[in-house]
Amino acid sequence: MTLEDFVNFITKNTGTIMEYSGNHFTLVLTTVLISLVIWVPAGLLLTKSDKWAARVLVLANTIFCIPSLSMFAILVAIPFFGLGRKSALFALVLYAMMPLIRSVYDGVKNVDRNVIEAARGMGMSSGRIMREILLPLGIPIIFAGFRITVVMTTGIAAIATYIGERNLGRFISEGLVRSNTPMMVTGALIISIIAVGLDTILGGIEKLIVPRGLRLNR
Question: Which of 10, 38, 89, 105 is the 20 to 30 Å CA partner of 170?
């Protein structure tokens, strides 16, 4: 493949590239929003019970280990989901379970117990301790898990093309079938750009909301 081949492909397929990029981005964004609404509260609830936390984390790890193509194939076989975005969204939300719940649980649990006891000694309620101490001190780990989730979802979303999603993964799958290198490179490159771009944006947000002394070294 030459640079000219690559440029020619992009020039001739600009409309399709925009369509697939938009579909890919909206799938990732929707997945992340749904996952935050479900898994962050779930992670906070699990900090109340180590017994249940162990069970749920085992389940989350098990789901995370299922190959993405197999997960999509299983969901497609279920009448309610079938081909398309429903199956893709459900699978991606399940994959987001592990990094989000784990980061929320670890972030809260890693807060120094002496700080919590001191807060209780001052008469602070459990809810206030969670809002004013546990979440602020645990936010570096929680945010790190969030960033991992976003990047991971951007990559796995490409596999959803095999169940009818018209996203950037289609360039890769069809490029393999046609032995079309510019097509494959275009899909992979734009997916990488989206992942890096989102991670960079989140990195900037992290610097704004996480105090310098609490940031994780990367």
Answer: 38
pTM: 0.86
Residue with tokens 């490179």, as numbered in its chain: 185
Residue 179 region by backbone torsions, left for phi larger than 0, else alpha for psi between -120 and 50, else beta: left
What residue ranges do the domains of the chain occupy?
3-208
With contact defined as beta carbons under 8 Å apart, do 10 and 168 qualify? no
Choose among 158, 185, 202, 212: nearest CA to 25: 158
H or E element at residue 141: helix 135-156
The two tokens of residue 48 are 């109340």
Q: Tell me: the pLDDT tens digits for 108-145?
A: 888 877 777 787 778 777 778 887 788 888 888 898 89
**Token pair 């989206």: residue:** 194
CATH number assigned to the domain covering 3-208: 1.10.3720.10
3-state helix, strand, coil in the chain (%, to 5): 85, 0, 15
